[in-house]
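Exercise 7. Predict the joint structure of the components listed below.
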Amino acid sequence: MRHFFHVLLALVLLALPAQLMAGPVQDILQNYRAVIEKSSRKTIEPAIDALANSGLPQAQKVLETWQAKDMWQRKSDGFFFEAKKVNAKTYALIDFDTGETVGEVAKDEIDQLKPNSGIRAVIATALVQFQLSDPDPARRSDALTAIERNAAADHLEPLRKSIATEADPAVLARKQRLERLLTIRFDPEIEARIAAIESFGGDLGVDLRATLNPLLATRRIVVAGKPGAELNIARTLRPGSDELPRDAAYAMLVDARLSTPRISASDKRAALAANIVDGKVAGIPVAQLNSDEARATAYAALAAGGKAAPTVTEAQFEAALAAHSFVDVYAEPSKAVTDAASDAMDAIQMRVGLNQALDLGLDALSLASIYFLAAIGLAITFGVMGVINMAHGEFIMMGAYTGYVVQQIIPDYTLSIIVAIPMAFAVTFAAGVAMERLVIRWLYNRPLETLLATFGISIALQQVAKNIFGTQARPLTSPAWLDGAWVMNDVVSISYIRIAIFVLALIFLGFFLFLMKKTRLGLETRAVTQNPRMASSMGINKDRVNMLTFGLGSGIAGIAGVAIGLFAKVTSELGSDYIVQSFMTVVVGGVGNIWGTLAGAAMIGFLQKGIEWLNPSNTLAAQTYMIIFIIIFIQFRPRGIIALKGRAAGD
Amino acid sequence: MNFLKATLAGALSLGLTVPAFAAEDTIKVGVLHSLSGTMAISETTLKDTMLMLIDEQNKKGGLLGKQLEAVVVDPASDWPLFAEKARELMTVQNVDVMFGCWTSVSRKSVLPVIEELNGLLFYPVQYEGEESSKNVFYTGAAPNQQAIPAVDYFLEELGVEKFALLGTDYVYPRTTNNILESYLTGKGIAKDDIFVNYTPFGHSDWSKIVADVVALGADGKKVGVISTINGDANIGFYKELAAAGVSADDIPVVAFSVGEEELSGLDTANLVGHLAAWNYFMTAEGDANAEFIKSWHAFIGDEKRVTNDPMEAHYIGFNMWVNAVTQAGTTDVDAVRTAMWGQEFPNLTGGISKMGVNHHLSKPVLIGEIRADGQFDIISQTEPVAGDAWTDFLPESAVLDSDWKDLGCGMYNTDTKTCVQIKSNY
Amino acid sequence: MKNTFLMRNPSVLVFLGLLALFTLGVTLMSEATGAALISTSFVKTLGKTLCLCLIAIAMDLVWGYCGILSLGHFAFFGLGGYMVGMWLMYERTRLIVEKSLANTEIPPTPQEVVDAIGTQIFGVVGSSEFPLVWAFADSLTLQLALVLIIPGLLALVFGWLAFRSRVTGVYLSILTQAMTLALSLYLFQNDSGLRGNNGLSGLQNLPGLGSVPQSVISMWFFWASALALGLGYVLAAWVVSGKFGSVIRGIRDDEQRVRFLGYSVEGYKLFIFVLTAMIAGIAGALYYPQAGIINPAEIAPIASIYLAVWVAIGGRGRLYGAVIGAAFVSLVSTWFTGGQAPSIPLGFYTINWVDWWQVVLGLSFVLVTLFAPKGIGGLFDLAQGIRAPRRHGQPLGPGQGALQEKEAQE
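Solution:
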């Protein structure tokens, strides 16, 4: 109804051109007022074309304003203006034709035009002709992006022309690449297209594949007899093969109206139901029609009596299949082009496969480093000291929340991260020491009860976090220099934040090794774990050592929390997501050995990514099967990948 | 042994807490939303919305000359507890109507109880459809009021030719994606051009999935992502999306479970231009919405709190119920149900919502682009669409119809002309 | 034999007597069979609590007596619930489908009936075919047998693998936790064929008994739960008395020594593990029809940890301790999280029990572990004048809370 009114309004306004002599651009806009207001990609094109082809100097400005959502419509007369915000309630209107400010109006007197991204893409395409040789390299770049997204045959000529005058080397390189891609798609000369295809070699770009694949797109058709020579055939299919089961082939025949359909079970049933006479169908009582055989008999009788369509016999079925050919044909008519494209794709696919494996490897490595980072604190408290700390996950969470709180106080992201890391360490170190003093040291001889007591602490801490911060996830934003990804090519890339986590994991590995092997504390820790009484006799204060070691393990968990919070989310349940995996990492790797933890993390990371690769549509399955694998693995290597030997192994 | 006795006696006394029979001059409204556990963050807001609406109604003089009284219980995000609390509300507290539930599984848990005791529930959240209970009014969106229009938008406005359906592994994404797959196939999208992936709740490792989605672009078709990812997992997903440099112009993402509330946990600067489909956005222009936001801020005492789609659903549902009760002159469930059919009320986005005989609401569908401030730019708004209980895009459901007024059946097979069942599937 | 067994364990008689009294009391006060003093929903809560007491007994057997801290017994509980739930759903849907198909012109074939049931049950999760796990869903007898068989079989396979390779102590605990995590993740998938996250619902409606009100059905289940608890208690008491029980406790206190004495430690452990898994399965099969819905969240690792918490608070190594712990903690939890507990205003902050109950529970758990390893059951010892010796932190086997420490009597 509203649209109709708008159209009507537009017509009325069109009928009164005398009042509309506001300016040439405004005239065009008013001409297309209805479609501009409707704002749909499907109908907008005439308006944009009219502007772009108007030859008016203001057209570019209008289109750019529109694209940037800065075009507004005055409610009183429907005129379009560029509007600049003066303050929250007032906007200044600028006329497109004169470029002058017409006046300031209240916000509720004007409507903002909100072109959706489909329309913005159409506008961008229309702007290409203005922008390709624009003095501003950013605009030229925009034009190239618009072509990449939405290329058309008539872009090829202007693009070629603009290459000659291009000064900026980066933009030039993009232009040249784009020119070759457009050549493949649109050039009328087959030789030129093949040459362009071959010029790329084994290039990995998604844009190249996106250009080649449509050339190789096929459609499956059925023809009577043998296929004609005019078709560019990709391959011929035999009915009954894996790609084309006989039923599917017959269905194609039916769809192409080359054969009569077979009667489906529900059609049969409907036919039977339609022919009930005195509670009987073709002489068979209805009550007996509760089996497929009885129905088939009844239907056959009906068909014989001409009351239903006859069924297709097996012989007719075979004959129909044999009389037709089933082929995949290329939409592209030129065989030379499809052959060249096919060869190029084969070469690319090989390299893409290799690179995908590399990318998967990087993902796995990254996941492994995350698990390692989450588990390294546990490798100290559980692996070295033998203390089961179920609240380890909550220390990770505390670290993440510390990062969040620091970010609230220090708005600069880089600085806040630098402050947050030692803060997180300090907070969780203190919490760890407190927990060791108050709870754990009374339970050194009762490992199962340590498990339960620390679990109690874990649920208490989780709830406290919920009470303080709420259940909603909190933002922990990484500094700008960690945004984005390290892109090797269009297949292999990894985000900087993951690289940072990987580096952090390496640093901690080094730190752990240094601490355990080279420092006094490490020596004492190892002594206390191996034989507390003997260590005491040697003058080691074992309470102090235990306390410091436990605090250290907890502190590292806190730093891991900051890292994990940066790449995922900060919620009170953050820790419990990692606790089971962390324990499994340590157990699988082998208790008491940092290399074991590393091996365990690597195994779990790679395994999970491997299963995900095998079954890409169900990530949950990957986690399930990974846990089952670990359960079975532990049956066969109960002491983990790297088992301690001899005395150190304890019981 | 005395202690054992004491414990048992104590346990007994719990059950004996006979409700103080409230004075007869109030009408009781049950509020069945989780106030603790994983769903608390979403549902607490709705509880507050209900308290606000009841408060406002009481200021207007109540209903049928009586005051309204809210009875709030906490089912603690524990699905069996929803059934228990619903029974308690209806048999012990004797409420006249209930507003509640968020997840589908909690609704399915309540359904048998509410149908057994002939209660009345208003369910405010967008859901997967395939249900129409005699005792439930669905004020959230059915798939044809959110998912299908969003896909149409992708197909027509953005020209998307290849779809990645990413969802959390539970019933809403599963069913919605099934319907969408069937719908897309009907629109001529090949099976190979639809990529489906399910992840667990709270999933955080998105690098591979995002890489898979980017790789979909390799055959030259425009890729779009339809996300039914739920809750916290969205944060990791959008962070990875931003890190991979995926722009909304190249690979647009439309989300069905991401609203103003979810975005407040995120820095949206890198997500500008991605989409969400709802029946309401806080940025909707209009006096009713401005008034609603104002009273919400006043009620909650925090100017920063956002409003969202399920809140609007409760707003419409509650007001319709008030009007239906006034019309029927009683709070009797059967009378109110009859009065609810065809009930109309202006929604907050400008327009009139109407309750259908299939207990679903007609609402406009809005599509919004994420802005840098965590709000949405409404770029498309349809005329009101009637909610469809049984989708037309799955063969088993296409033959089903729901009409409680004339057919008296929520699951009516139009082929065989029979009512499959009066009670719901649960 | 029975006589002497009861003579030697007078606490069993006391327990049975109290349970009978309690059941009678509830019966007389219920809506269906008595004075309607307690609501149907509370009868259901009490019935469910009895089932929780039963699984707590199983936990006590495996942990308090045998020393295996299993953090996975809720997996067996859930499986029991799933088994009985499958039949309940199938049968209820079958009745609906047959009734609706009876109206059609052509009588349905058996296959059409099964297809229609499949569409009804799995339509919710967007599929319509019966997965293999539903093969026996049409037979109540078989599904009831599966209530015992499936948890038993899982426990057998898992236990055999774990005990054979001598995985003990905390390693075993973590492994059992991994098992229940894997199971719940598996069931969360739609592909598992058990309706994923939605689980099985509407279980409180017994097929064919639509006319019986829930107040009556809830009493049936309450009685059944009480009976199961009574029988389970007697069975558990019988298992732990006598020579078999002594070996079990011996394994708990020092596994190596028992092995050196020539006992097949693995066999004993496996027997207890499987037996308790089956008891847990029965408890689950009775619990979920009262709860009305079962879904994978029920068997998440946290549930099993809570089970250990109940037993520890009640006092492990004594069966009544487990019962008290489960009943006390679960009912008190219900009370606090139900929003009925009054908030405590502190002036600057109001303590809302919905928010702070978990904190109290967690900390009380730490305190019990530290200061009262015998749990609530320890109060009985105090009453009888049994004291634990002061050990100054030295170990005496993992079961400091065990009743067997008669030497500590003063």
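Discussion. Chain A has a mean pLDDT of 84.
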